[in-house]
Amino acid sequence: MKIKDTVHFKWHKHLMIVIILIIFFQLSAMVTEADFQKVVTNSDQFGVFLSRLIRPDFSYFPKLIAPLIKTLQMSLLGTFIGVLIAIPVSFLATTVVTGNQIVSTIFRLVLGIVRTIPTLLLAALFVAIFGIGEATGVLTITVFTFGMVSQLMFQAIETIDFAPIEAQLAVGATRTQMAVWAIAPQVFSQFASYSFYAFEVNVRASTVLGYVGAGGIGVILNSSLALLKYERVSMIILTILVTVALVDKLSEAVRRSLL
User: Fold this and answer.
1) Of 7, 81, 116, 225, which has the maximum CB count within 10 A?
2) Are 235 and 64 contacting, i.e. CB atoms less than 8 angstroms apart?
3) What DSSP designation does 58 have?
4) Mean pLDDT, 10 residues at a time, over the chain (259 residues)?
């Protein structure tokens, strides 16, 4: 095949791909009944929104300090409680510790169910049950942390060196003694790293829990959006961005020192 024919073939191939993508786009728009004409006709609102968003109201920052502290407190407390619950469950979720496939399967099934529930849905359920407030946010973060950290922890346990375990069992140690003296020292640094990672994730998650009434700075963000106070929204987003960046850096530094 000549070079000219090869180029011509590739050009036709790319054209066919573009046509197929356009057809799929149109079919998707028809199925979902998406009206992109409204997006074009309302594009002027984007300019209005952006022009106000790029001018944050710095005078509003002092009012954000207390909600921001509550958000960090929610994240810290929820992470701490979730990790405390996750530690024993992670040991029970692996046959390395239990020696019983049925028991470990039951705990893994529970963890799988917990991890499949989205955080916002979990928060909405707890708000409906327990009401609006920071306590609901803490409970949501606790359950989310429990599901995530337990999964990471029991997977870490299954990758350890089994020689100390065999030595402990050979001298007649119980399963509990084996877990404390043969397994825990090998996975402690990983457990600590996962805990700080969970805190990092929870700080991000807790900022949006206020949308469903779970407390923190998300409540103010939601109300500011509802009142079209875009200058305040910009300041809130900027505050959250800086806070998350600082927590990320701190968490990353601690996790590197532990591994």
Assistant:
1) 81
2) yes
3) G
4) 51 73 75 68 68 79 87 89 91 83 87 84 82 82 90 84 79 79 83 86 80 74 81 87 85 74
Would you say 139 and 78 are in contact if contact means Cβ atoms under 8 Å apart?
yes
Residue 62 and residue 23 share a domain: no
Same domain, 113 and 197: yes
Tally the residues of the chain: 259
Residues 6+ apart with CB under 8 A from 189: 258, 259
Instruction: Please state, rounded to an integer, the average pLDDT across all residues of the chain.
Output: 80
- pLDDT tens figures, 179-215: 878 888 888 888 888 888 888 888 888 777 776 666 7
Within this chain, do residues 108 and 208 fall inside the same structural domain, yes or no?
yes
C-alpha to C-alpha distance for 68 and 236, rounded to whole angstroms: 9
DSSP 64-131: HHHHHHHHHHHHHHHHHHHHHHHHHHHHHTSHHHH--HHHHHHHHHHHHHHHHS-HHHHHHHHHHHH-
- Residue 18 sits in which domain range? 3-42
Q: Which two tokens stand for residue 216?
A: 């923190």
83 and 208 fall within a common domain: yes
Looking at the structure, tell me whether residues 70 and 16 fall in a common domain: no
